[in-house]
Write a sequence for this structure.
């Protein structure tokens, strides 16, 4: 009994086919990289937004990508750092839920958006409250809290309040024209 041994058949692949495969592989890698960059940027912008719904959707998308072995957290963190955000804080809670004193994003200055008559009334009342010496300083304390809360939200009226207090205590500046 003799066993015949047969050699496995060798398949020859044309060089052009290998080059095509190499080109296709390179193209797929570039597309994958570009798509990952776009997704990471989208997630980072959503984390940086002040919209709780967008933030939650970004977290869910990042978790789903992690489960699919397509982690983009490093790219998201890089984008956040490049744009002035603290990545650790961005992943923990939306910007609008964080106390502004410890915020990872500064709030925009909205003082100019407050109508002048409203600013004037608020400034006058806060200045009066700050100068009030009755009730063991309760009014002054409330005025300070309200002033700093407005400032934390981007409506800084401290300069206008200082000017009003000066006008109330020292009188109008004689060098200011009356018109």
């Amino acid at each position: 009994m003799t066993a015949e041994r047969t050699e496995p058949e060798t398949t020859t692949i044309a060089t052009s086919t290998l080059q095509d495969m190499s080109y296709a592989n390179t193209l797929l890698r570039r597309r994958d990289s570009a798509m990952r960059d776009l997704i990471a940027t989208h997630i980072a912008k959503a984390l940086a937004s002040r919209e709780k719904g967008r933030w939650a959707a970004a977290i869910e998308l990042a978790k789903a990508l992690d489960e699919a072995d397509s982690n983009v957290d490093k790219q998201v963190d890089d984008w956040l750092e490049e744009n002035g955000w603290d990545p650790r804080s961005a992943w923990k809670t939306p910007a609008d839920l964080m106390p502004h004193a410890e915020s990872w994003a500064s709030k925009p200055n909205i003082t100019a958006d407050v109508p002048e008559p409203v600013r004037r009334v608020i400034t006058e009342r806060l200045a009066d409250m700050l100068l009030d010496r009755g009730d063991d300083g309760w009014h002054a304390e409330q005025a300070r809290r309200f002033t700093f809360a407005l400032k934390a939200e981007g409506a800084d009226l401290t300069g206008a309040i200082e000017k009003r207090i000066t006008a109330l205590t020292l009188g109008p500046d004689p060098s200011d024209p009356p018109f």
Q: What stands out?
A: The two ends are 123 Å apart (CA to CA). Residues 129 and 139 are 5 Å apart (CA to CA). Confidence is low (pLDDT under 50) at residues 97-103. Helices lie at 15-48, 52-67, 73-82, 87-92, 116-131, 138-152, 158-170.
